[in-house]
TrEMBL record:
The entry's keywords: Hydrolase, Protease, Serine protease
Pfam families for this protein: PD40 (PF07676), Peptidase_S9 (PF00326)
Protein known as: Peptidase YuxL
Keyword Protease: yes
Organism per entry: Oceanobacillus kimchii
Chain segments annotated as coiled-coil in the UniProt record: none
């Protein structure tokens, strides 16, 4: 192979520019977006930019070592609101679009976020965590000194826990606050608190006539032990709340029709627990009747793609067409994420879809055009215009200089039929400086979830391992999204069986097809569910010569009680909870098979991982070490379950270095 570019390395992670959150402004031919980079202090910075499509001019709106997101211009395009950490806490700021310095408009103790303009531009609705007795009119943001004192006081006090949902991987230990919906009225500069119940409320949309809000919440007495999320309407004139749904489902990303008579929403009824495909529903507000639009489809709505190169705002959910006859949304299918359109009867059309990853979009109703955020296996992501003729044109080229310098390997798609008749899709990366006739070591990557999807998106870790001289294979075994409801459900109550078979047959397929793979130098790695599967693999076969397990699960009995999701996830995925059948949970725990392990194993875990807590890695390490196995344990201070995706950049680089070191040593 004649290479003119250098191999990608760990520190290139710091040079990636990740774009997200495309949003058309009220001004024609202009959109805003967020760019996230790592600064010289090895910290993330997120800044807002706007792009004029007609002139190709780009303007930067925010500066400094802060995170600035959710930039939303008002209906007459004179002002914009955005959220920023520049004061030390995430707050809302207002800026005049004709110039001038931003002005802080919220000073809430625990911050404010997710702003939305009222249709007449006189109010901004937003979310804020509040305690039950907080007065929104006297809120005062804590100083740095006060925050330090509060942190110190917490360290000197016992934590009193009296509810089931008392911690989460994202937030750590919960306090007594709940997310409430607030309005800021610009002419009077007054705040109005619209929700007060001691539970979280998620604002979805404001009706075009400005009279109603739609939000989701759980107002049931048993909310602490439930996962449902009902839809509510709030009449802003009468202050009346109306429950739209029946307390058996989960709803999010709802949108009013232009005449405010209907709502579309994503959600599902937990038919297959956590493996249930997301559906699109239509609600007639006058009758509260729900119609499922997706009942003839077999695709996952939304973005199910797994990658380590996405930061910032996520996708924005379904959007109505200008004439109110169609809905636009993202869907995940066959390893790609695409833009779809449906009418209200469920007639589905893919309006843009290639072998890539559409990670966000915005719709211009007057122009019938879209801005798409698109990543591919060889590009971390850029924005494109999809015009009314469905022609695609590039609008940004944010990683141009980096991609001109580094070699990025284009994957080869692989597919085979499993021994029990399932079609399995995957991808193979050849090593940097590949030469015909030479044998190369091999690494199998297993994704987390398990209900997620590898696919046609940029993945720094996979490229890095290929750059180090490894053949890298990543597949979607049963349990993955992208191949229909029965496929994604195929792993439930079947962990370590069909999924293990799919992965081993993927290895066999590659060994049979590609003569350049050295069958005596096989490695395996994965995180979360992929970590569980790595642990399971080395306890059930000795064909791998090295393994790295990351943020893994080793013991389902203890996972039930220590994970922030264990109390429901165990039932969802295995059909039982701890006291139902402890012996069965032990039978599917990799720890039970530790004595069988002969593969050198590196265990990586974040100290503050509440999803798969560090005791899972610790149990496995101590057991293997006590058995005098070849094992090493690395604990990452301050890191939660998201270490590999959005964790501290320096820690992410150290993690990649350790993975490379282990495979270099044993393969």
């Amino acid at each position: 192979m004649n290479l003119t570019k250098r191999a990608i390395n760990e520190t290139d992670l710091k040079r990636l520019e990740i774009v997200s959150g495309p949003t058309y402004t009220a001004s024609n031919n202009r959109f805003t977006y967020v760019s996230t980079k790592v600064n010289e202090d090895s910290e993330y910075e997120a800044h807002v930019y706007s792009k004029d499509i007609s002139t190709n001019q780009t303007k930067q709106w925010t500066y400094g070592k802060h995170s600035n997101t959710n930039f939303r211009s008002n209906p007459n395009n004179t002002q914009a609101v955005f959220q920023s950490t520049r004061s030390g806490t995430t707050q809302l700021w207002l800026v005049d679009l004709d110039g001038g310095e931003p002005k802080q408009i919220t000073f809430f103790q625990k911050g404010a976020f997710s702003p939305k303009w009222s249709p007449d531009g006189t109010s901004i609705f937003f979310s804020a965590p509040l305690n039950i007795d907080d007065d929104i009119h006297t809120q005062k943001e804590h100083t740095c000194e006060e925050k330090q004192q509060i942190k110190k006081d917490k360290q000197n006090k016992p934590l009193v826990v009296n509810r089931l949902k008392y911690k989460s991987d994202a937030k750590g230990f919960h306090d007594d606050s709940n997310i409430q919906i607030i309005e800021y009225h610009l002419p009077t500069k007054k705040f109005i608190q619209w929700t007060t119940k001691p539970t979280d409320h998620s604002l979805h949309d404001i009706s075009a006539d400005g009279k109603k809000l739609v939000f989701s919440s759980n107002w049931n007495e048993e909310a602490d032990s439930e996962l449902i999320s009902d839809l509510f309407l709030l009449n802003l004139h009468t202050h009346e709340f109306t429950l739209l749904t029946d307390g058996n489902s989960n709803y999010y990303n709802s949108r009013f029709s232009s005449d405010s008579s209907q709502i579309i929403t994503l959600g599902h009824d937990f038919d297959y627990a956590g493996a249930t495909l997301t559906k699109l529903y239509l609600f007639e507000l006058s009758s509260k009747k729900r119609k499922e639009i997706t009942n003839q489809w077999d695709i996952q709505l939304g973005d199910a793609m797994v990658t380590d190169s996405r930061l910032g705002e996520s996708e924005n959910g379904p959007i109505w067409s200008k004439d109110g006859k169609s809905i636009y949304f993202l869907g995940s299918d066959q390893g790609s994420t695409s833009l779809y359109q449906t009418d209200l009867d469920g007639n589905l059309e893919k309006i843009y879809g290639e072998d890539n990853h559409v990670f966000g979009f915005t719709y211009h109703p007057d122009e019938e055009s879209f801005i798409l955020g698109i990543s591919s296996p060889i590009d971390p992501g850029n924005f494109y215009e999809l015009n009314s003729n469905r022609e695609l044109s590039l609008l940004t080229n944010v990683n141009k200089s980096l991609l001109e310098e580094i070699h990025v390997e284009k994957p080869e798609e692989i597919s085979f039929t499993s021994s029990d008749g399932l079609a399995i899709q995957g991808w193979l990366l050849r090593p940097y400086s590949f030469e015909d006739g030479k044998k190369y070591p091999f690494i199998l990557e297993v994704h987390g979830g398990p209900h997620a999807m590898y696919g046609n998106s940029f993945f720094h870790e996979l490229q890095l391992l290929a750059a180090k001289g490894y053949v890298v294979v990543y597949t979607n075994p049963r349990g993955s999204h992208g191949y229909g409801q029965q496929f994604v459900n195929g792993v439930r109550e079947n962990y370590g069986q069909g999924d293990f078979q799919d992965l081993m047959e993927a290895v066999d397929y590659c060994l049979d097809k590609y003569s350049f793979i050295d069958k005596d130098r096989l490695g395996v790695t994965g995180g979360s569910y992929g970590g569980f599967m790595t642990n399971w693999i080395v306890g059930h076969t000795n064909r791998f010569k090295a393994a790295v397990t990351q943020r893994s699960i080793s013991n389902w009995l203890s996972f039930y009680g220590v994970s922030d999701i264990g109390y429901f996830f165990t039932k969802w995925e295995h059909g039982l909870n701890l006291l139902d059948d402890p012996e069965k949970l032990w039978d599917i725990s990799p720890l039970k098979y530790a004595a069988n392990v002969k593969t050198p194993l590196l265990i990586l875990h974040g100290e503050l991982d509440f999803r798969c807590p560090i005791e899972q890695g610790e149990q496995l390490y101590i057991t293997l070490k006590h058995l005098k196995k070849e094992v090493e344990f690395i604990r990452f201070p301050g890191a939660n379950h998201e270490l590999s995706r959005s964790g501290d950049p320096s820690m992410r680089i150290k993690r990649l270095e350790q993975i490379g070191r282990w495979f270099d040593q044993y393969l």
